[in-house]
Design a protein that fits this description.
There is one protein chain. α1 links the parallel β1 and β2. This protein folds into 2 domains: 180 residues, Rossmann fold (3-Layer(aba) Sandwich); 141 residues, UDP-galactose 4-epimerase, domain 1, CATH 3.90.25. The protein is globular and about 55 Å long. The protein is α/β, with parallel strands linked by helices and 358 residues long. α1 packs across α7. It has a 5-stranded parallel beta sheet, sandwiched between helices. It has a 3-stranded parallel beta sheet with strand order 8-12-15. The structure holds NADP nicotinamide-adenine-dinucleotide phosphate. NADP nicotinamide-adenine-dinucleotide phosphate (NAP) binds next to β5 and β9. GO terms for molecular function: lariciresinol reductase activity; pinoresinol reductase activity.
C-alpha cells in the first residue's frame, strides 16, 4: 500500500503549518486548502507559496462553498483539519460540521483527523466553565463524524509546549521568567507537554496506521509527564538560579477568573489551565482499549524533552556569545579561521566555543 494523499485544512495556522511540513517530510503527497477569504494576507500567501515550493499542492476551497470542499476532499485519502480552537486567537471548531458533510458526500476518505490536539474531550469530567465550551464543541464534531460513519483518529496532544513550557505553566506567559514564578496550588499535579513539531510528526505517523483507526491517539512522551514544579526546576537548573515562588491557591485562581475586566476568551483559557494544573485532568486516567499511546507505537520518534525545549529560551548562551564577540578580538579570528585553533578560554567563553563548533 502506498502512502496516503493528505489534505491539510487550516494549513497556515500555528499547528497546521507544522502538519503540512511533517506530511511532506514523511513523503505524503500533500494538499493544502487555500481559502479565498485569506485575501491579501501576505503572510498566509507567502506561507502557502513556500508549501508549494516544498512540493505541496494548493487547493482552492472555502467553508462557505460546499462544492469546493467536496472537490478538495475527493483529491485525497486522508483529511486533517487544524482549524482554530483557542479562544484568545479564534475559535471555529463547529465549522468542521460543514467539512463532515463534504467528507460524507465525497465518500472516499479513509481517515479524518478533526481539529482536536488537546485534552481528550471525551475523558474530561466536570470541565470548568466557561472553558467546557471547547470540549462540548469538539464532542459535537466527533458525534457528527461517528454518526456519518467516517473513519477517524482523534489526536489528544495534551499541552502544546510553546504555550505551557515556555511560560513555565503560567497563564498569559509564553516566555520563562528569570526571577519569579506563580505556582498553581502545590504545583505537583502532573501534566503532559509535547513540542508542536512532535505533535505534527506523530499525527502524520498515525494516518496510515491500522492500529489507530477509529481510536484516540494520546501523546504521552514519558519524559514529558511532569508537574509544574518539575518544569520550573528544569529551568532553574538550566539558568543556574532559583526562582522566587508565589503560590496561587485554587480558590484565588478561580476568583481571579471572575474579575469584571477578564474577557470571555481569557476566561476560557483560564478554565483550561485550571483543569490541567489544579485538577490534573490530563493524567488522571489510564488509556483504555479505545486509545493508543504515540511514543509506544512510534518509538523511533526522537521526541523533544521539556529540558531540551527549555534550552530554546536560555539566552545566557547567546548573551555569552555576544559579550565574547564584543570583548574578545580572538572571536573574529576564530570565525574566520576554517579549522579553529583551540584557545585557552574562560569557562563561559569555552562554552561559547563549544556552542559554535556544534
Ligand atoms: N493543547 C494545546 O495546548 C493547544 C494549544 C493550541 C491549540 N490547540 C488546538 O490545536 C488546534 C489548532 O489550533 P491553532 O492554534 O493551530 O489554530 P490557529 O492557528 O488559530 O488557526 C488555524 C487555522 O484555522 C483556520 N481558520 C481560522 N478562522 C477560520 C474561518 N473563519 N474559516 C475557516 N478557517 C478558519 C485558518 O486556516 P487557513 O490556513 O486556511 O487560513 C487558520 O490558519 C485547535 O483544535 C486547538 O484547540 C491545542
Amino acid at each position: 500500500m502506498g502512502k496516503s494523499k493528505v489534505l491539510v485544512i487550516g494549513g497556515t495556522g500555528y499547528l497546521g503549518k507544522r502538519l503540512v511540513k511533517a506530511s511532506l517530510a514523511q513523503g505524503h503527497e500533500t494538499y493544502v486548502l487555500h481559502r479565498p477569504e485569506v485575501g491579501v494576507d501576505i503572510d498566509k500567501i507567502e506561507m502557502l507559496i513556500s508549501f508549494k515550493m516544498l512540493g505541496a499542492h494548493l487547493v482552492p476551497g472555502s467553508f462557505t462553498d460546499h462544492k469546493s470542499l467536496v472537490e478538495a476532499v475527493k483529491m485525497v485519502d486522508v483529511v486533517i483539519c487544524a482549524i482554530s480552537g483557542v479562544h484568545i486567537r479564534s475559535h471555529n471548531i463547529l465549522l468542521q460540521l460543514k467539512l463532515v458533510e463534504a467528507i460524507k458526500e465525497a465518500g472516499n476518505v479513509k481517515r479524518f483527523l478533526p481539529s482536536e490536539f488537546g485534552t481528550d474531550p471525551a475523558r474530561i469530567e466536570n470541565a470548568t466553565e466557561p472553558g467546557k465550551v471547547t470540549f462540548d464543541d469538539k464532542m459535537v464534531v466527533r458525534k457528527a463524524i461517528e454518526k456519518g460513519g467516517i473513519p477517524f483518529t482523534y489526536i489528544s496532544a495534551n499541552c502544546f509546549a510553546g504555550y505551557f513550557v515556555g511560560g513555565l505553566c503560567q497563564l498569559g506567559k509564553i516566555l520563562p521568567s528569570r526571577d519569579s514564578v506563580v505556582i498553581h496550588g502545590d504545583g505537583n499535579k502532573k501534566a503532559i507537554y509535547v513540542a508542536e513539531d512532535d505533535i505534527a510528526t506523530y499525527t502524520i505517523k498515525t494516518i496510515d496506521d491500522p492500529r489507530t483507526l477509529n481510536k484516540t491517539l494520546y501523546l504521552r512522551p514519558p519524559k514529558n509527564i511532569l508537574s509544574q514544579r518539575e518544569v520550573v526546576h528544569k529551568w532553574e537548573k538550566l539558568i543556574g538560579k532559583q526562582l522566587h515562588k508565589i503560590t496561587l491557591s485554587k480558590q484565588d485562581f478561580l476568583a481571579s477568573m471572575k474579575v469584571e475586566d477578564v474577557e470571555y476568551a481569557q476566561q476560557v483559557g483560564m478554565s483550561h489551565y485550571h483543569d490541567v494544573l489544579y485538577e490534573g485532568c490530563l493524567t488522571n486516567f489510564e488509556i483504555g482499549d479505545e486509545g493508543e499511546e504515540a511514543s509506544k507505537l512510534y518509538p523511533e520518534v526522537n521526541y523533544t524533552t521539556v529540558e531540551d525545549f527549555l534550552k530554546r529560551y536560555d539566552m545566557s548562551a547567546i548573551n555569552a556569545k555576544v559579550t565574547f564577540q564584543h570583548h574578545h578580538p580572538r572571536l573574529h579570528q576564530y570565525l574566520l579561521c576554517p579549522t579553529p585553533p583551540i584557545y585557552s578560554l574562560s569557562a563561559s567563553a569555552s562554552n561559547t566555543a563549544m556552542d559554535m563548533k556544534a
